[in-house]
């Protein structure tokens, strides 16, 4: 049996909204240390990793044995209560080991600014250049480092060991930005030979991370017969 209580019930909705377009079915792993999820999208292109630490809940108790989950929502004045019961599914999925990696470039920026910059295809490079190409035209957005702001969450910080140029199918990136309501900032970690990592912190209790492999562009000369 798992019992947990969140003072902000809207947090659970924001988490579910951020992954529902990518993941249809997923296993939630519940242990004494926290509440976690790891799942790939149906095309096996993007990976979602969620962690909510146990100490971030008002009440958290994890025991073995139960095939039903119950969600109960209370109004702040406790004059309205709604509960929903759902039978759990047994999903056969493989848990991936994700090694700690060093990235060539790390960008921290306002999540709303990142969300407004996404197009169809992007190429982050050096400072942070997002290029979009479509059937009717192109667009380029340059995000430079900016730490001279009144609020830390409004800063754009770029840590770069070497330039990185990658191309992504940004319909996935677009889905990742659905997590923007969870955090005012987003961290984008880039490296030439690794999937990009887009991370949103969830208050003081955890994070949601999205992993996406870059598109492999064929050399034009090699593609000619």
Automatic annotation (TrEMBL):
Keyword list, A-Z: DNA replication, DNA-binding, Nucleus
GO molecular function annotations of the record: DNA binding; DNA polymerase processivity factor activity
Domain of life (superkingdom): Eukaryota
GO CC field: PCNA complex
Domain Proliferating cell nuclear antigen PCNA C-terminal intervals: 97-215
GO biological processes: leading strand elongation; mismatch repair; regulation of DNA replication; translesion synthesis
Compartments in which it is found: Nucleus
Keyword Ubl conjugation: no
Keyword Transferase annotated: no
Coiled-coil zones: none
Pfam families in UniProt: PCNA_C, PCNA_N
Proliferating cell nuclear antigen PCNA N-terminal domain mapped to chain residues: 1-63
Full protein name: DNA sliding clamp PCNA
Organism: Heracleum sosnowskyi
Native organism taxonomy: Eukaryota, Viridiplantae, Streptophyta, Embryophyta, Tracheophyta
């Amino acid at each position: 049996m798992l019992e947990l209580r969140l003072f902000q019930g809207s947090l659970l909705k924001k988490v579910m909204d951020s992954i529902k377009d990518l993941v249809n079915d997923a296993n939630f792993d519940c242990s004494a240390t926290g509440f976690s999820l790891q799942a790939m999208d149906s095309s096996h292109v993007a990976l979602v990793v969620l962690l909510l630490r146990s100490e971030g809940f008002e009440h958290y108790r994890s025991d073995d044995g139960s095939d039903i989950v119950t969600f109960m929502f209370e109004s702040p004045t406790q004059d309205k209560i709604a509960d929903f019961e759902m039978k759990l599914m047994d999903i056969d999925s493989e848990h991936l080991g994700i090694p700690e990696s060093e990235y060539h470039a790390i960008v921290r920026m306002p999540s709303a600014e990142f969300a407004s910059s996404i197009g169809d295809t992007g190429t982050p490079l050096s400072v942070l250049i997002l290029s979009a190409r479509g059937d009717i035209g192109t667009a380029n957005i340059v995000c430079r480092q900016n730490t001279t702001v009144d609020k830390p969450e409004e800063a754009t910080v770029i840590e770069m060991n070497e330039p990185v140029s990658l191309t992504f199918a940004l319909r996935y990136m677009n889905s990742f930005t659905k997590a923007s309501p969870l955090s005012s900032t987003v961290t984008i970690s880039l490296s030439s030979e690794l999937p990009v990592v887009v991370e949103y912190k969830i208050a003081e209790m955890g994070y949601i991370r999205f992993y996406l492999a870059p598109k492999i562009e064929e050399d034009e000369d090699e593609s000619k017969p």
